[in-house]
Design a protein that fits this description.
Elements (H helix, E strand, L loop, with lengths): L2 E5 L2 E5 L1 H25 L1
Length: 41
């Protein structure tokens, strides 16, 4: 089950599995970018 976020009159449900996948993708991208930058030096 996801988390509920209440923003005034709006209610959102966060899909935690989707958030985990996006975090993993972002971490991979950051590692690739940092690896490319260090190889350029």
């Amino acid at each position: 089950m996801g988390r509920l976020v209440i923003d005034g009159e709006n209610v959102y449900e966060l899909d935690e599995e989707c958030l985990r996948e996006k975090r993993k993708e972002n971490e991979k991208k950051e590692k690739n970018l940092s690896g490319e930058e260090s190889s350029k030096k």
